[in-house]
User: Fold this.
Amino acid sequence: MNLKELLHIWLADNFSLNVEIGILFIFIFIVLGILFFIMKMFGIKNLFFNETELNITLGGIGNIKIKPNHEAAQIAHKAWSELITRKAGLQFDSEHDIIIEIYNSWYQLFAEIRTLIKQIPASHLKNKNTKKLIDLLVDSLNKGLRPHLTKWQARFRSA
Assistant:
């Protein structure tokens, strides 16, 4: 089977738009319609985002359970990506790590998380799960990164 058998749209010689819809396309459309109807009837709002539990050790923040909407899931994924791909998210190795690189990574992570918080649409601020995500991100800055950076980074950079 190819795409032409599902849906074929073309411009004819007389500049008319022709559309041919295959039976499989109609079947898929009907199944999606029935699924949408069932979701509405039973009050199912989202099939793709389930409740997620996170355990954040940065600053002893602890566990959080959220059921994210699409935007919150995107922001959470970006924050997670920032954390796991930076020196700030890895265990310090005194034999191989360079302190200046660690502090630069923490400083950049701080700026990135702040940017991610600002990207959350204001229309989602009333959503309790989005609020949990915001609280988690703010706590990661204010309880995780900021205390250490305030105490040690200035001493290190001035030395």
User: Anything to note?
Assistant: The chain is about 55% helix and 15% strand.
